[in-house]
Amino acid sequence: MAKVEALPYNDRTVYSVAAFNRGVGQWLSRLPTVWVEGEVTELRRHDRWATVFFTLKDPADGSCVGVAMARGRFDAQRLDLSDGERVHVFGRPELYEQRGEFKLRALSIERFGVGAHLASLERLKATLAAEGLFSDERKRPLPFLPRCIGIVTGNAAAAKRDVVTTICSRFPPASVLVAETYVQGPRAAADIVAAIGALCEHPDVDVVVLTRGGGSFEDLLPFSDERVVRAVADCPVPVVSAVGHEQDTPLCDLAADVRASTPTAAGSTLEREEHRLERTRERLRLAPALAVERKRAALEKSAAKLVALSPVQTLERGYAIVRTDSGEVVTSTTGVSTGARVDVTLAEGGFGARVEEVAP
């Protein structure tokens, strides 16, 4: 840290502008991070800029303070802010020394009331978890071949188009029943619960997909409403939750039997089942042929053993079988005597003979 030094000037202590700004900046850097509330105005963001700028205004008396935030950090919060919105900004006072401009260096931004919502959701999450609504033991497998797929989605929503198109194109035999409802705003939670109940009244529906596209934290709040979470947990058929983007985790995700990262991924789940069914069908089609081939190979192996053990194979190597008149095989000279008649069998044909001499 550069030292702030005064210039000697008769009986006065005088600082240059650079030294003055540096001293004020160093003093400000020792202040703690704070939360500041106000309305967003003059929001300026550009893809070529490393920093996002806006002004935070107090609606009570018009007091203002400039705010700067790293663009990567700002974009990561996915707030989609616009002028006039009321926010809480967490940051540190900072002085841009070269121009003597005082700003708040923002580290995080929340829409007004988000902190209270988060605390409330954490309490609800703990309560429902203690009841076992999120336990793995409650999760049910998806039906292997669903007769009818119920979809809870917004009216004319892109999420509805994505999931219906995916199901119809990748799993044509599936029957789809769509229940359109509000998916954001004060009426959404009650309407979502009613839509789930209406779908389950149809006897053919054996899986429900709860879906909506991405949105702000407030937009997705209905899917963390206790009524919706309990409706998902109590649903008589398995539920797939496909709400928001992959990084969004509303409480209905935890209660659902399966969570899909996007609405399109929910339809892809059925595609995987179709592929699994196709592989099973192919295995069943090939099973008889494979069984016959295995039996044929076993028979060939046994036949080869029988051939190797066959007496004919021995005769073909120049050996012969000698039998007495009574048909008994001669295996020792004790079985014949001089003058006895014998039959000799060769690999091809045979002949009769008379014993002229018996060797010991």
Overall radius of gyration: 44 Å
SS element count, helices: 9
What's the helix-strand series?
Answer: EEHEEEHEEHEHEHEHEHEHHEEE
How much of the polypeptide forms β-strand, as a percent range?
A: 25-35%
Q: Please tell me the overall pLDDT.
A: 83
Summarize the amount of helix as a percent range.
Answer: 25-40%
Query: CA-to-CA gap between the ends?
Result: 121 Å
Strand order of the largest sheet: 3-4-5-7-6
Oligomer: single chain
Shape: elongated
- Structural class from helices and strands? alpha/beta
Number of strands: 15
- Main β sheet profile: 5 strands, mixed, barrel
Provide an overview of this structure.
This protein has 360 residues and is α/β, with parallel strands linked by helices. It has nine helices and 15 strands. It has a five-stranded mixed barrel. A five-stranded parallel sheet has the order 9-8-10-11-12, with helices on both faces. Strands 13-14-15 form a three-stranded antiparallel sheet, with no helix packed on it. Helix 4 (158-170) runs parallel beside helix 8 and helix 5 runs parallel beside helix 6 (226-234). The longest helix has 47 residues, at 263-309. The termini are far apart.
Descriptors for this entry?
elongated, 15 strands, alpha/beta, five-stranded mixed β-barrel, 27% strand, 360 residues, 9 helices, five-stranded parallel beta sheet
